Amino acid sequence: MLAAILSATLLGVEGHCVTVEVHVANGLPSFTIVGLPDEVCREARDRVRAAVLSSGYPWPSKKVTVNLAPSSQRKVGSGLDLAIAVGVLVADEFIAADAVADFGFIAELGLDGSLRAVAGTAPMVAALGRVQPVVATASRHEAEIISERRVFVGRTLRDVVEALKGEAAWPTPAADTVPDDVITLPDLCDVRGQPLARQALEVAAAGGHHVLFVGPPGSGKTMLAQRMPGLLPPLTPQVSLVTTMVHSAAGLRLPPGGLVSRAPFRSPHHTSSIVALVGGGTAALRPGEISLAHGGILFLDELGEFSPAVLDGLRQPLEEGVVRIARARASATLPAQFLLVAATNPCPCGGGAPGSCECDDGAKSRYLRRLSGPLLDRFDLRVPVHRPGVDELVAGGLSESSAEVAVRVARARQFAFERNGTLNASIPGALLDALAPLEARAQKLLRTELENDRLTGRGYHRVRRVARTLADLEPEHHDTVLEQHVVMALQFRVRLSPLLRGRAA
Amino acid sequence: MIANDSDYQHALPDEAFAASLAGFDRMTVNRLNVLLAHLSPPHAFAVAAGHEQPRGLVRQLFDIEGLGAAWRQSALRRPPEIVYEQCLSAGVTVLIRGHDGFPLPVLNDPAPAAVLFVRGDLARISGRRVGIIGTRNATSSGRDTAMMLGRDLAALGVHVVSGLARGVDGCAHRGALSVANGAAPLAVVASGLDVVYPREHAALWQQVAEQGALISEGPPGTVPEAYRFPLRNRILAGFSEVLVVVESRSSGGSLITVNEARDRGILVMAVPGALRNRASEGTNALLGDGCPIVLNVDDVLIGLGLDSRRAGGVAYDPRPRPSAADTELLDALNEPRTLDHLVLVTGQSLVDCAMGLARLEADGWVQQVNGWFEATADSALHGFRSPT
């Protein structure tokens, strides 16, 4: 007998529909899976057989052949387990063929017959389209946010088979009692002093500008970066959905409710490989950290310690907002629109007040050379951070909280969207004169900076974009960019050590 | 080898043989001095190469185990005509002690060099000479001081002698070269004159060679091995009438030069530094030992027995006077501060502080490095800061 069951597999962050064809016929008892299964998928053989037997159903002592169509495409992961098990039972005529016609099955099986969640349920359910998905209980929310039809769940294979045979109703999972959004984000009011860095965070959040914090160890670079998500508005529905897909595909734990609605914050360690950061690796082309940070923040602490190849890998995604991964067998385009927040020491010893550095010129220039060049150019904001003094730590009451800042950020973003249609960081250079006109004195100031060779052409545009954001953030909103905005924008471009300049000369 | 051919010996100048001998294996300053004191250079070469029998005092040299064999090997590898060709093509002149043109300051040195190699023109070094030395790991304040001393001395017609090392040395030369028509700088280096060390000073080497002179004890091709630096330091000390140490750790090459200078009765002066600054430990100790202090260029001139009262200085400060609010900021910059500190100290808003600093920076009152603001002591120094 023959059975064809719908399921799906994952490539990048997209699901692809797979038809599991099962053929049971007379012959020497055997069980083979064909159709380019990967290692995990091939092991389904043992899981499925054990699960069927421990659920108390008969295993046909015949020749069982499973084909995963289309057979030219590589199948990955354990999500096809349930479909294969159901397929075998249908082909063995234990379940009627028309009972499964309108269902797609995505779940892993345990040897005891329990259903388990698999990574990438959301994109795979999306690929199923107009059939009713059957998933593990833990995957319910993930499936529900994307499916056009009712989502059915089962705790065990027995639940599913009984429901399909009409012997029992589909189990209804208990409603979750976990309230939404219980995660408390670190708040900006914990940060003492550091007015410049605080303002930089606000500007970065409002304008979507990439930030580099430069400062000695203990100056609070990491602390500041962690407060960034609290300043960003909730994700828009479209971005939220895409981010959810990426997180699901990577097998990350999704928030209760299934939808990723807050800006994600990813901080990979500096030993991360290029594949971990950019994506790829498994046959399914697992999304990398930059895709997991889609719509949110990618925080790279100790930027100078990342390998130069990894940092170079960031340049194309930073420019295009997507990352294209191509391998011999498959290729995928993954979303990667993130705000890059990075932190670095000014030199290997950590630096500090002028004269306290103990590095020799060679070590210092080697260290800075890693950061120099095109990547450094991508940061609109290069902010010096300093160890706060005793006065700052004990002075005054609480600082402004994230919520207060977030209000200003949201307003500035709204201004920007109404005017540009994008965030200020992505205003094209040609439109700057129209969208960010400069006051005469501001123009003169920028002119002097350019004449003194302290600004490059690219830097000039970046300063203007940052100045635009600064103007948008002020309570009395300015149409033109004033001198004070440009002055502040220039403060956010710390000059890294005279050494680098000497070399360029 | 055709060293026995007497025609051949007369075809090449003495310098060719001296240059070849200077690069022999196991050749030391003393051995070279013994050879050249008793024999003419062609003769000395013939003896070292084993073509002639050593006689008299020179013979004792060859009692040293293996020396004769090593030199015979070296002679084969360093034919004088090729070595001389190398010197000529690198623009290097060879000076032999006792011959014409050997620099007087080191002629009667307690440990004199037997042969010196020069690029540029020693005739440019005709006036008073001050050595400026210091650590390679200098602070930015040390660099600025070295630059300022180099510049001011060159402007006043005093030749700056230094070692072209990283840090203080290089800055002293940069300062001296920054003056139009200033006194020519003299650099004493440890490697061959065609082997630039450190490599990042390639442009600076070239400039010193073009505007002043470069001196080395090693022939072209000599690599900067560690033992050559102390030897270099004694020549550097020999060329200085006054030696100024800008910054030095509690031990290091600068203090070797200081000892060499003291052995020669040369005045050593030091620039004071902050107590906890490692780069000033050595100089502060020198001051404690009674070295005269250098606070500005006049102190160095006094050390030389000169004064600058009649030299034209900067008649007025061309910088526009800062406004009252900006003066408050400038007063707060009595030590390097960050923008954050300034906001806290002055109580002004972030934007006001930034605006004030921008004005002060544009007018040359303040400079910024790595987010730290420092008041510029001297308006003329402002011009040195290379732009971003």
Structural class of chain A: alpha/beta
Number of strands of chain A: 18
Gyration radius over CA of chain A: 28 Å
Largest sheet of chain B: 8 strands, mixed
What do you see in this structure?
The complex is a heterodimer of chains A (505) and B (388). Chain A has 505 residues and is α/β, with parallel strands linked by helices. Helix content of chain A is 37%, strand content 17%. In chain A, the strands form 6 sheets. A 5-stranded parallel β-sheet of chain A has the order 11-14-17-10-18. Chain A has a 4-stranded mixed β-sheet with strand order 1-2-4-3. In chain A, strands 5-8-9 form a 3-stranded parallel β-sheet, sandwiched between helices. Chain B has 17 helices and 11 strands. The interface between A and B is large, with 51 and 38 residues.
Main attributes?
heterodimer, A: 505 residues, alpha/beta, Ribosomal Protein S5, domain 2, Rossmann fold, 2 domains, five-stranded parallel sheet, elongated, disordered C terminus, B: 388 residues, three-stranded antiparallel sheet, 12% strand, disordered N terminus
Secondary-structure topology with pairs:
The complex is a heterodimer of chains A (505) and B (388).
Chain A: E1 2-11, E2 14-25, E3 30-34, H1 39-42, H2 44-54, E4 63-69, H3 81-91, E5 103-106, E6 108-109, E7 115-116, H4 121-128, E8 132-136, H5 140-144, E9 152-154, H6 157-165, H7 195-207, E10 211-214, H8 221-226, H9 237-249, E11 265-266, H10 274-278, E12 279-280, E13 286-287, H11 289-292, E14 297-300, H12 308-313, H13 315-320, E15 322-326, E16 331-335, E17 339-344, H14 361-371, H15 374-377, E18 381-384, H16 390-394, H17 402-420, H18 432-435, H19 440-451, H20 457-473, H21 483-491, H22 498-504
Parallel strand pairs in A: 3-4, 5-8, 8-9, 10-17, 10-18, 11-14, 14-17
Antiparallel strand pairs in A: 1-2, 2-4, 6-7, 12-13, 15-16
Helix pairs in contact in A: 2-3, 7-17, 7-20, 19-21, 20-21
Chain B: H1 6-11, H2 14-22, H3 29-38, H4 41-48, H5 57-61, H6 67-77, H7 80-89, E1 92-96, E2 115-120, E3 129-133, H8 140-155, E4 159-162, H9 168-177, E5 186-189, H10 202-211, E6 213-216, H11 228-239, E7 242-245, H12 253-263, E8 267-270, H13 281-288, H14 297-304, H15 324-332, E9 337-338, H16 339-346, H17 350-362, E10 366-369, E11 372-375
Parallel strand pairs in B: 3-4, 3-7, 4-5, 5-6, 7-8
Antiparallel strand pairs in B: 1-2, 2-6, 9-11, 10-11
Helix pairs in contact in B: 2-4, 2-7, 8-9, 9-10, 11-12, 15-17
